[in-house]
Amino acid sequence: MPKLPANFNWKESVFHIQLLEEFSKPSNISRVLKRDFMQEILGEKIEDAIERFVRDGALVPANLEESLDTILLATHVKKMLQERGLRISGSKAVLIDRLIDGDRNSAEKIAKQHRILKCSETALALLEKRKGEKAEEFENARNQSFELLKGGNAKEAYKVYAKYQKKYLYGFEARSFDVEEIQSVLLSCPLVLGNLTTENQKWLQAAAGMKMLWRDYKAEYWLPENFVTAVGDNRRAISYLIRNAYFQRIVAGRDRYYTKKAKITFREGDIESCQLCLSLNGKIFDLEEFPELPMVGCTSETGCMCDLDLYSSDDNDDFLEDEEDEIQIADNEIDTDPVNSLKVLKQLLDEDLITQTEYDEKKKEILSRL
Prior knowledge:
Elements: H1 14-21, E1 27-28, H2 29-33, H3 37-42, H4 46-55, E2 59-61, H5 64-71, H6 74-83, H7 92-102, H8 104-112, E3 116-119, H9 121-150, H10 154-168, H11 176-186, H12 198-214, H13 234-252, E4 261-265, H14 275-278, E5 284-286, E6 307-310, H15 323-336, H16 338-350, H17 356-367
Antiparallel strand pairs: 1-3, 2-3, 4-5, 4-6
């Protein structure tokens, strides 16, 4: 791997800062060098990056006590003390000090077999500064995303999210499918939530969008104080809205599967759906008359967690359960409309009809034709 220019400013490289963080506490360089995947991220060999840190004074050798603490487990130190007739009581730090006092030559010999480095005071200050900057960027991006979601703009909200992720997450790829899913959440407002004002509806949809976009498991905290819906629990309200949007996407996309009817099924051992939802198990509906889910009166914490088995036509009762049949549909559409095929493929993945590996392979094939 070629070396970076001598004047390369590693302090402006997010991924070099991440490598430096490995030494915020004394660390064995051999352990860090095992992380081969970091070389591609850094654009140079890990050892070259580390040596640059050393030359610039960002990394310094750990002292003897720190080195032994990094290399040895407490049980190893106790064994060495016992072999030398020394007491084995006390904390690990006390044990190490006792070993050094009792047999410094052996302690130094052990330390010399390893290269233990740590951040200098200057480097620790730099890491603390970068940590603060990252936290500020994170909060700014989230706040900006929320305001855009509240305004109904899923695309721009996703752009803000993607910009942040690309900076700090190597290999991040933006996906248009995610925008479509979030946009559907911004259009969802099921009857189970009761009569919401337009403003409260936007608040709830934006909070649900934050859960979808940022994987925010405390998305209810985006809601105003004293915010309430018919279900009472705001976390449940967000889950209901997301599930409703999910069902709407499936039903709205029925034409791509040439379906007319759907059978509602629940997985064996379902413990998340309520009895009201479970009462629908095995029932078949025309998609034009498909019930709104979750239903009014649902008491599940997460909303109706059913699956839909789709019929291929009005004239027969063959379900599209065979995975190969579903993949064949996608294959046929690849030849005619690659862009739509990507949407079909994502839907198959979301419904667990194909594996992630099959999805990645098909996606790669489709993109090669664009």
